[in-house]
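Postdoc handover notes: sequence design on the structure in folder B. Input tokens:
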């Protein structure tokens, strides 16, 4: 359950503010979790696309634009994954750059968590606490989550949040799935989606959904993660998002931050993604019709606490960078990615990395010539 801090706020906002069907929103995440369990056998996550979701929410985009963006991203990564292009490109990225991206994601998690308790999304406005109460409760959730994360603290927090949600929302819960519609797509819709949604998301997905999860899986699981390769992740990522676009649902990814969240709270096997996928599938098909009224009542301090905890632990991945120059490069990439955007951060990071390698090669050549 540790990844709900990312999943729920974006999913609820897409349902309430953008008008997506609750069943269509949850199905891609459910299926990707089940695919993760069957294909990888490890607790890989299924997260909403963060840049994609944030832009769609901020711009008030409808289901058709979101579906077009999901289809374009799905096709792009499915083809790149099957052709082996992602595995080839991964060789150009040193670990310091990947750690910098993971630092960016950790900082973004902390920033989103802070926003959840200080400026709650409109989808949660009816049940939100004032910041003077929400902030201390969120901090308390972080302390509890960190102190007892191996003893099931995430399950306790999510269970408590579910009880509060049911009490606050009250009333009868509508059963059955919500309606699913096939998107209405044309060239103009695809063009708008490509410009507004795909271009900002594609670099983030390349690094944080393909390179960084493969790296984090090796750190956490060693040889058990041999099958978690960038190209393979791109293939499953792409296939599920083609489905998401086809049903006007929520595009999803393999996020490295979600892997850290699941691992840090005790997940070690395929059982975790299987249970998450089965639970989301049951919600999508069994209670999708009533979810829009329920999810907005889930306590934001709990979501923020889980999200902030995952951010803190994700930043901790930097600890394996022993050399000062590598740590400095990761810090530069992380800071730029957080303050500007990830594409700029990666461009600067790659330039600095290969420049330093070129200088080092030149010095060695000069020394040898003497």
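Designed sequence:
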């Amino acid at each position: 359950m540790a990844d709900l801090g990312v999943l729920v706020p974006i999913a609820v906002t897409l349902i309430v503010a953008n008008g997506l069907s609750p069943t269509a929103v949850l199905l891609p995440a459910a299926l990707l979790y089940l695919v993760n369990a069957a294909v990888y056998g490890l607790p890989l996550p299924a997260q909403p696309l963060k840049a994609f979701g944030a832009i769609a929410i901020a711009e008030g985009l409808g289901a058709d634009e979101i579906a077009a963006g999901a289809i374009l991203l799905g096709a792009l990564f499915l083809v790149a994954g099957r052709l082996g292009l992602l595995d080839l490109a991964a060789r150009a990225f040193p670990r310091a750059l990947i750690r910098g991206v993971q630092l960016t994601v950790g900082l973004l998690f902390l920033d989103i968590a802070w926003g959840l308790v200080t400026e709650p999304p409109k989808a949660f406005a009816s049940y939100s606490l004032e910041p003077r109460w929400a902030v201390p409760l969120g901090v308390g959730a972080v302390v509890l989550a960190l102190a007892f994360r191996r003893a099931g603290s995430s399950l306790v927090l999510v269970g408590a949040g579910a009880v509060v949600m049911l009490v606050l929302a009250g009333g009868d819960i509508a059963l059955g799935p919500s309606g699913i519609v096939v998107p209405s797509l044309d060239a103009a819709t695809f063009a708008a989606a490509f410009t507004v949604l795909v271009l900002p998301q594609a670099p983030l997905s390349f690094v944080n959904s393909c390179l960084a999860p493969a790296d984090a899986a090796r750190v956490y699981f060693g040889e058990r993660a041999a099958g978690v390769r960038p190209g393979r992740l791109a293939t499953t990522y792409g296939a599920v998002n083609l489905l998401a676009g086809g049903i006007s649902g929520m595009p999803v990814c393999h996020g490295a931050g979600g892997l850290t969240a699941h691992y840090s709270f005790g997940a070690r096997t395929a059982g975790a993604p299987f249970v998450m996928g089965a639970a989301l599938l049951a919600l999508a098909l069994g209670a999708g019709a009533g979810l829009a009224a329920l999810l907005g009542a889930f306590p934001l301090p709990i979501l923020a606490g889980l999200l902030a905890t995952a951010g803190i632990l994700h930043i901790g991945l930097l600890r394996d960078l022993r050399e000062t120059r590598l740590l400095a490069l990761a810090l530069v990439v992380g800071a730029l990615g957080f303050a500007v955007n990830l594409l700029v951060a990666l461009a600067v990071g790659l330039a600095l990395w290969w420049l330093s390698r070129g200088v080092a090669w030149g010095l060695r050549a000069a020394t040898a010539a003497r």
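Context for whoever picks this up: The two ends are 61 Å apart (CA to CA). Don't rerun without checking with the PI first.
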